[in-house]
């Protein structure tokens, strides 16, 4: 319990520092007029500070400093430069994101910054050794491919988090739940001797959860501040690191271990498939934007969270629904992990069905459909 209690302390410092710094960031944002203005493709209706990622970066820095002072984490720092590399990469990507929040940075510029951050991770040894694919097994990554895989993983993660950052509290809540569940799982692997040690994955995961929890009270609807690209890129990098050093370093003989493949891919698939921006939605976004000649990087209101609102769910309900899906999927995997004898997941299946029906068949949807039908009848009568 000594080491676990240490993780709890780090979580509290990450959350507390992020929350404590946020009023200063709000004041700075308003004084410098670093605000996200309402527009046709946005949900908010008033100018809102958009540099919340700066407070998250402070939470990360303080959490790492505190961890360095705790004897129980000596094994992660002594003779190991990975955490230094993580912070340098986080600093680079967050500052470039901050620059984009204040004064737009071109898409190639953002990609270049992400690549540089990825190469910093490679330089400091923050890489995966194996890559797991469902039903295909485990593949060992050769030295020549390590930089490419690391950079690609980081690019995908940062874009995944950036894409779901469309409603107040959505991205922060999803990452908080996902990283919290991932910490529990990675701690379980470590406690059972299934991770190559020393492994920074559980520490990064718990810090990620902490900075999100510290940020959420300021970001839930109605949001007083947005995380901006500085926050979404930072969270994407932290999720990339934790998943790569846990899922990409676990003993290959554990590939059949319950949930192993899922949790290696979950922080990627959760935001993309189940929790806000399905892969089909991303593909549709590419087709939609290209067909309109707007370019893939141009924001719009075609993602799942926007469609939930269009179907009659308010912003808060849409966010809570997506949070609930996150909890469901995380619980769905954690339950058999900690209860190996469990051979039934009927409870989770029933909950999923109820949640799906609530999402699709909520009375507000019928009200909206009826209103649209009446409007259509009125238009037809006027045309006659």
Largest sheet composition: 2 strands, antiparallel
The Rg value, from CA coordinates, equals: 21 Å
* Helix amount: 55-70%
Order of strands across the main sheet: 1-2
Shape descriptor reads: globular
Strand content: under 5%
Per DSSP E runs of 2 or more residues, the count of β-strands stands at 4
User: Counting H and I runs of at least 4 residues, what is the number of helices?
Assistant: 15
N-to-C series of helices and strands: HEEHHHHEEHHHHHHHHHH
Spans with pLDDT under 50 lasting ≥5 residues? Answer: 266-282
Provide the residue-averaged pLDDT: 77
Class derived from helix and strand content: mainly alpha
Distance between the termini: 76 Å
Please outline what is shown here.
The chain is mainly α and about 375 residues long.
Descriptors for this entry?
384 residues; mainly alpha; two-stranded antiparallel ribbon; 69% helix
Task: Please describe what this structure looks like.
- With 384 residues, the protein is mainly alpha-helical.
- It has helices at 2-31, 53-69, 74-77, 82-102, 107-123, 146-164, 170-191, 201-219, 228-247, 260-274, 279-292, 304-310, 315-338, 346-361, 363-383; strands at 35-36, 48-49, 130-133, 137-140.
- It has a domain at 2-258.
- Helix 5 (107-123) packs across helix 6.
- The radius of gyration is 21 Å and the shape is globular.
- Strand 3 and strand 4 (137-140) form a beta hairpin.
- The strands form two sheets. A two-stranded antiparallel sheet has the order 1-2. Strands 3-4 form a two-stranded antiparallel ribbon.
